[in-house]
Amino acid sequence: MFSLFKLLFKLGIFCFVIGLVSLASAYYYFSPQLPNVETLRDIRFQTPLRIYSHDKKLIAEFGEKRRTPIQFEDIPPQFVHALTAAEDSRFFDHFGIDIKGLTRAAFQLATTGKIQSGGSTITMQVAKNFFLTRERTFSRKFMEILLALRIEQELSKEEIFELYINKIYLGHRSYGIQAAANVYYGKNIEYLSLSQHAMIAGLPKAPSAFNPITNPKRATERRNWILKRMHSLSLIGDQELQEATQSPVTAKYHTSDIELRAFYVAEMVRKSLYEQYGENLYTDGYVVHTTLKSNLQKTANEAVSNGLIAYSERHGYLGAEDNWDITLPLTELQKKLNKTISYGTLAPALVLNISEKSAEVLLKNNEKAVLEWEGISWAKPYKNVNWTGKSPKKASDILKIGDLIRIREKEGKIYLTQVPKVQGSLVALNPKNGAIVSLVGGFNFTHNKFNRSTQAVRQPGSNFKPFIYAAALDKGYSAASLINDAPIVFHDSKLEGNWRPQNSSRKFYGPTRLRMALYKSRNLVSIRLLRAIGIPAAQDYLELAGFDRSKLPNNLSLSLGSADVTPLKLVTGYATFANGGYKIEPYFIERIENSFGKTLFTAEPLIACKDCSDQQDTTDSLAPRIYDEKVTFLTYNIMQDVIRRGTARKALVLKRNDIAGKTGTTNEQKDAWFSGFNQDYVATAWVGFDQPKTLGRREFGGTAALPIWIDFMREALKDTPEKAPTPPEGVVSVKIDPKSGKRAYPGQTDAIYEFFRLKNVPSGYATPSNKGTTNAAEELF
Q1: Are residues 190 and 73 part of one domain?
Q2: Which of 1, 21, 338, 728 is the 20 to 30 Å CA partner of 764?
Q3: Catalytic residue among 53, 87, 312, 453
Q4: Which CATH number do you get for residue 322?
Q5: How far apart are CA 530 and CA 526, in angstroms?
Q6: Which residue in the list 425, 462, 481, 559 is annotated as catalytic?
Q7: pLDDT single digits (tens) 113-169
Q8: Does 25 share its domain with 114?
Q9: What sign results for the dihedral spanned by CA atoms 600, 606, 609, 615?
Q10: Catalytic residue list contains 462
């Protein structure tokens, strides 16, 4: 017996030595092939680009993988316990490998000839996930063990755990536990219950098989097994176990929670940064904070949408988008309807039945509703841009059974509507620094991705006149200067034939003060002003404000806004009138951070600030003054009259004394504009067709564009005090005769006050007998 024991002992020693030799040989064979585990310290997880508003509302997310890396100290201890109980209960005690687990795996290999459970620790899974393939071979397993040992030597347990929970795939495009918490429960991991923690902890083993959305039964079994395992390890108590195992499955799919519709700006950000970062933009976890204010962007969205819908409905009903065979099964019709895209507030609906004054419609998600007469009686049939058919008498005059229509909700009721063919834009910025606070590039980004605020090059019409008038003021004209509003004919070799410009009213009013000419938008006065100061001088003045000289016509049509500009370029020019003469640059990216929260870029905009020049620490960021402060004050003050008594009187509804602006309408009403401002915000609204054609003979800047601007400014200015500009030094107020523009004679009862630069105050006085005369004779040049 003793001899047998000695034999077995020697045999054991021999096997042990052979094992050590084999292990050492394998180590020296595989060791040179092992990657450097130090690279794990600098690992970059594939994390999508996220774009936020200034007040941290999510605008967009670009990237295939949903991942939000989280640091160990931010992981709830309860989740740490759940995951280790499920995957590696001795994780914080072993040195990278679990002897018991490996022994079990070796036994399975010896008895079945296959690797089954693997005996992997969390550290070994980190080694596999970051460095190795998923093939189930002995050599790969051995390298996994060696890597795990090295990882444990180089990294702390907390660092290893953090790598694991941020890397793993957990189903439905979610990578890492924070993304999984958002996908399945719509909130961050720290706000989940014990039951929900255990549910997510069960996913790494098999994200599809144990998925609480696609396979809730097996997911619940896995969750409960983990909870019982936590209980057996004394990580939770009896009551916690009972409550958590009895909790219902509450998981459901949550998309990225887009909090603010600003897709045109999101695309501007993506396009701008792609030039710098390339494809890494979608995987390196950049976070971009824009200058948008969420309340103003939301208001701008609604203002543009409502304005374009109102225009569309003014011109009549275009008819149904399609007509479906409603004899098909309701389930098939519902499925087809659910796939039909909604555009903003315009949802698809299918007409099922029609009565005398109403219609029953099928909505998305198996809902039905009644479209009352109030919601459809507006729908006169569209004939052309200037004419509609007769008002409908009954619902069947408008609708047919099977019609695919559009509806929108308003004050709890549904109304028939249509996707507008017309387009529009609104862009608003802070005139002090150029920060874009809202931008809408069209009716709906999903419907059409062309950004009209930044890409549509159109003629501004009379919206351009303030720059011509400001140039004239700069050249010595005053707000009281008289310019003859009379017929004029130009023969210009650069123009085809004779040019006989007219006012929109087709009337002429004789000598007109410059102020009145601008707020009444008199074309003939603008032409004479431009001719007087010279086209090159006006182009110089416009170029100072940032307008591209190559897009400024070299003829007198420049005075009527025949230049080519984008809404963004125009609103930037108007900012100069709002801020006292400074040139600011528009910007929309406020800050860029990497996936770890480190700031990579912070905008440093030029600031329009007349009182900052003495402050040494801010002089480098001051915007240059391009226009004389006295000239911009006078122009601002004159444009206030555009609202008080001119073409934009609708804006009086805002009940503000500090707003100013100018309407604009191009030839044949192809473009409608309004640009307006106070000292806090400047905004430009545009309406037109992408392929230029008339909006209709009754559509002007004050009809189509101004209502959009008003709706926006109502929200933008509602909590801001009035701040009308005060006359700068060198500007005085003098009583004048309203007809001649001269100083009022003593006791004149119809005299009015006018602002002048000191050097331009009229020297002569009016008399009762020399008030202005009218000369409307046609002149030929």
Answers
A1: yes
A2: 728
A3: 87
A4: 2.40.50.140
A5: 6
A6: 462
A7: 554 444 688 888 877 777 665 555 555 566 777 787 888 888 888 988 988 888 888
A8: yes
A9: positive
A10: yes
